[in-house]
Amino acid sequence: MRYLADLHAFFCPQTVAIVGASQKPGKIGNVLVKNMIACGYPGRIYPVNPKEEEIEGLRCYPNLSAIGENVDLVVVAVPANRVIAVAQECGLAGAKNLVVISAGFKEVGKEGLILEKELTRICRSYGMGLLGPNCVGMMDTHVPINASFSAVFPKQGNIAFISQSGAMLVAILDWSLTTGLGFSRIVSLGNKADLNEADFIADAANDPNTRVILCYIEDVTRGQQFLQVARAASRKKPVIILKSGASQAGAQAASSHTGALAGSDLAYETAFRQCGIIRARSMAELFDLAVAFAHQPVPKGNRVAVVTNAGGPGIVTTDSIEMSELTMARFSKETSQELRVNLPREAAIYNPVDVLGDADENRYRSALEKVLGDQSVDSAVVLVCPTAVTEPEQTARAIIETHRIYPNKPVFAAYMGGKTLAGGAKLLAEEGIPCFTFPEPAVRALSGMVRYARARELPEKEKELELGGIQPEPVKEILQKVRQEGRLTLLGSEASQVAGCYGIAVAPIVLATSPHEAAARAQEIGFPVVMKVASPQILHKTDIGGVKIGVETPQEVKKAFIEITENVQRFLPKVVIHGIEIQKMMPQGTELIIGMTRDVQFGPLIAFGLGGIYVNLLKDVSFRLAHGLTRQEIQQMLTETKAYTLLRGYRGEKPKDLGAIVEMIARTARLVLDFPEIGEMDINPVFAYPDGAFALDIKITIS
């Protein structure tokens, strides 16, 4: 794994050189120089252009070596075919970091990719950090520095925004001017040839001027590095990500149940959840959450009070709350009594609190003070609808002043109107109280804050899975033998041996190549037995008569051996048969599936849920990444499925051995982490019993 970059000299450089600086207005090289001057950058700026002597009042240098001192940051804006030479010059001149604005790299095809790889190689050989290429640049409003060609330098604030899309970034910056939203840092990632989202998330997590970290990404460059960084960063500050596009999880998953269940975006969803990241589903939600975290305290719980001057909007808000991870607060008896005394007789005093359409600022103030003072209330949403007597500005001041009394409880507002309420909404926004036109976005933002609060409460570090009785050497030998035979899929008996080497309890299974051998092996295992054709080419053995269940005598075994062989030869005459597998027939248990599909970015993705023939029909499955998986997370996996209800004991059934299931999942995770060549694995079904659990059918494919 590549070490994270030290970005202090990147954001706080003493000196900045701009290679490709231009005297011509409108050229990117000219905009870069003007932006650096206009933002108030306190360090030394060195334009570099051999054709100019002065640019924007600054002395211009023919090359970096002519500057006469080491440069902390070099911003490059020259044609792509000249960037390699500039990078080499930067390395020789002792530059610490590069921002390559220039386009024409991997985004344009093979030739550009070759250029980009060479650029990355040069930067790493000299220990220079590289942002880009093909990026807008970066800014820090607190230094201040503006090493970008954006037309806008944002208002100073506490939100860091990291974007893979340059167009998205400049659009947001322009929009921010109309909303008054402030930023601490802005980073355009571009092609992410070297520095990536993980580097900037890690640095923002330690930046005293940043309170919340926003990201727009289309992919993750280094999955394991990202997981490590995101886990640590989200313990310190909210990390909110809008992820577009799709991962390649399940792209080669047609051959397994687990792969079929794993959607293209599932690995990212799972990774974000395990790391404590909040995932936004739209640009609007991304910045709604940003405003909420930037100005409001993190709620201590999910209990919400609603204060409204209209019944309908109160019901809409209640429905939205109940459909999210929030719940309507239940007031104490004292709070209800105080509301009854201070509000009109017709007012609703139970949550939601309806202060009626003729409510003035004092009625709002009184109601909000009472509910925020209640220990059973964690946060509040205040709704204001325009009536003939509504006082938008005065009510806004009442909300602001009341919130100051209870600063540890977040307050959101929905001013449900337009021009009439605009003045009040503006006052609230200026004071850091998120104000929306409708209640649903307020509820979504508050729900995101609660999800973050819960994630932050989880133990920072649980012991990694400690498992005894693991024998990796026999597994290596089995996988090597399979490769030597030119196969990618293990036989059932081989897969069972692999599982057994990692302590996974498997119903006894052996491979027989003749009727006589099959009968002898069946007697050793003990009757009754199940017999299955052994051929990696056959996915659905039952469909062609390749399975016999409940075989009880040696004679029946010999007969079944011949029948299975004939069935396969009749339906699939060209298929290679390796023999017939004989397996101990286990008593019926609760059928489960434990599986794995390997994501291109994040590695093994573990699945658990109801198994058997209904696995793809019911799709009752939960997922976790194997990397960093803990027993606590495995236990949480179980609770997320309907299978958990059956396992706990349903309609008189005895509870099943949850500990044995957790152990089997843990050992499966360890196996696929130790052997990255295992591309997919299905254990389906697993029979769970009151005492123990056994794997019956195991499928393993390798790459």
From TrEMBL:
InterPro entries: AcCoA-synth-alpha, Acyl-CoA_Synth/Transferase, ATP-grasp, ATP_grasp_subdomain_1, CoA-bd, Ligase_CoA_dom, NAD(P)-bd_dom_sf, Succ_CoA_lig_flav_dom. Residues 496-532 form the ATP-grasp domain. Keywords: ATP-binding, Ligase, Nucleotide-binding. Coiled coil: none annotated. Pfam families: ATP-grasp_5, CoA_binding_2, Ligase_CoA_2, Succ_CoA_lig. It comes from the Bacteria. This is Acetyltransferase. It comes from Desulfofundulus luciae.
